[in-house]
Design a protein that fits this description.
This protein has 329 residues and is of the alpha+beta class. It has one domain: (Glycosyl)asparaginase (Glutamine Phosphoribosylpyrophosphate, subunit 1, domain 1, 4-Layer Sandwich). It is built from 10 helices and 13 strands. The protein has an 8-stranded mixed sheet with strand order 4-3-2-6-5-1-11-12. The radius of gyration is 19 Å and the shape is globular. The protein binds glycine. Glycine binds next to strand 8.
């Protein structure tokens, strides 16, 4: 108990260190202009439509962006037809489904969980880690133990679910491990929301790359790779082959481009270009980014065609095709 209090105090002490924010044009503008199109939520891929509906139920009632993104991506985690988010996702090559998620808000508060098994909502665990511990990230057995001690329970159904187990057994026949563009590895959900009070938050959750090496963790739970929010600038999230985002601190790089004045579209384009430059010869690797600034301007960019995102605002509820660099197929 005293150790816990010590760690808590340590966390508070660090949080209390005054770090002077860099003042940028974007920051000044965001604070001086009324947000004309808030609340607003965007999220990756078609499953984002339902996830956005979950987030919208919080945003339209004046709720916080942080609660909205948690509720929104949890919808996708519960979707038993989804093969790359939640416990209906594809397993690693040893047959275990392992989940990664993170959440972050405009005040740089964040929580993350990785390599988590048998708990339905990793995003709720990530949020609880953020709210209840002095840490940012817990992984694996320790994360599960902590979650069970803090009100979460293991699911009472078999994981992988039967259809997924059958696919896995078919996959075992050849055991081919590919990281190309296909439905198995690029439909993580990443979500960014701006609420009616101008607060931003983001969330990202995935079962990771299908048939990955046991223990592999991608970008989705890594703050700065799969998700990053800075309340002075905006936020970004990513989908696709996570190793590329980790190598370039992708989501953080997008936010830093916006800090220097790039629009969300331009900032996503910059990082996609950088990834291609740093990863020559990765033919077929799909990576997509979404970004939003504090004015509620948003955009997206991917390596290949096919990446789209769901948008919900007061007057829009639709899919938007992201811009892309290359054509596949
Ligand atoms: N972007 C999800 C992953 O690579 O695990």
């Amino acid at each position: 108990m005293s150790r816990r209090r010590f760690l808590k105090n340590l966390g508070l002490a660090s949080a209390g260190l005054a770090i002077k924010p860099i003042t940028t044009a974007a920051q000044t503008t965001a604070k001086s202009l009324p947000l004309k199109d808030s609340p607003l939520v965007i999220s990756t891929w078609i499953h984002g439509m339902e996830a956005n509906a979950g987030a919208w139920s919080v945003l339209e009632n004046g709720g916080a962006a942080l609660d909205a993104v948690q509720k929104g991506v949890a919808v996708t985690e519960s979707d038993i037809t989804n093969r790359s988010v939640g416990l209906a996702g594809r397993p690693d090559r040893d047959g275990h489904v392992t989940l990664d998620a993170c959440i972050m808000d405009h005040d740089s508060r964040c929580g993350s969980v990785a390599f988590l098994e048998d708990i339905q909502h990793p995003i709720d665990v990530a949020r609880a880690i953020m709210d209840k511990t002095p840490h940012v990230m817990l992984v694996g057995e320790g994360a599960q133990k902590w979650a069970l001690e803090n009100g979460f329970s293991k699911v009472d159904f078999e994981v992988p679910i039967p259809e997924v187990q059958k696919d896995y057994e078919n996959w075992l026949i050849k055991s081919e491990y590919k990281t190309g563009v296909n439905v198995e590895n690029h439909d993580t959900i990443g979500m960014l929301a701006l609420d009616a009070s101008g607060r931003m938050a983001g969330a990202c959750t995935t079962s990771g790359m299908a048939y990955k090496i046991r223990g592999r963790v991608g970008d989705s739970p890594i703050i700065g790779a799969g998700l990053f929010i800075d309340g002075d600038v905006g936020g970004a999230t990513a989908t696709g082959v996570g190793e590329a985002m980790i190598r370039t601190a992708g989501a953080s790089a997008v936010v830093e481009s916006m800090r220097r004045g790039a629009s969300p579209d331009e900032a996503c384009y910059d990082i996609v270009q950088r990834i291609l430059k740093k990863h020559p010869g990765v033919e077929g690797m799909q990576v997509g980014f979404l970004a939003m600034n504090m004015k509620g301007e948003y955009g997206g960019y991917s390596v290949y065609n096919g990446f789209n995102y769901a948008l919900r605002s007061n007057d829009r509820n639709e899919m938007v095709d992201a811009k892309y660099m290359r054509t596949w197929g």
